[in-house]
Predict the structure.
Amino acid sequence: MSFQEKNIVASLSAFTTILFVYLLRVLQMIQTESFNATNLFRLWGIIALLAIVGTILLTIFTHIAGGIVHKIRTNEDPQIEDIQDERDQIIDLKGTRVAYTFSSIGVALSMLTFVFGQSPLMMFGSLIFFGILSQIVADVWRLTLYRRGF
Amino acid sequence: MERGRISNNIRKLRFFRDEMTQQQLAEKVGVTRQTIIAMEQDKYSPSLELAFRIAHVFGVPLEEIFSYHPEDAQT
């Protein structure tokens, strides 16, 4: 697995965990009838912090673990190919395009909640949901392109 | 418009260059080893610039390395 693929796997793991935590917390809030602006925006802050710190920590952990496994399997020192060549850049751009499309659809769907008479909180809640989901979809698409080719 | 398939014989050319490794070729043309692997497996068609750099390393014209098959549409 290349350096870029490891980064994507780390990002994918981080954002999948974050989505799970987010949905769990929102469901808990709805069940305990504490789904209000203060709690939701506090959750936004936690999610943003988790996304940054979690991705950095998971990336470091993935590379260390990958290096150890490589050393055990081949008895060679792991080489870090941290250059991003033209193929990596194209895959990154294709992933970004998917994320952009998906988040645009997410924004439109979130706005639709107003049409069905939902509260603005529901709109903000679904906005962050689609934001995280678009990142996951983009990472899955990038990994697919690395594996399948294009 | 359907896209054709671009194949190459980089693997064969590496073999005839004293078994040049994928890593050595990657370093010479400035890409990662994974990109060389993807090209050899026809999973990636390089840019024109990279194709010229590969041709320059092997010292052969471009058409000796890459061939275009318009009849084989990509899926």
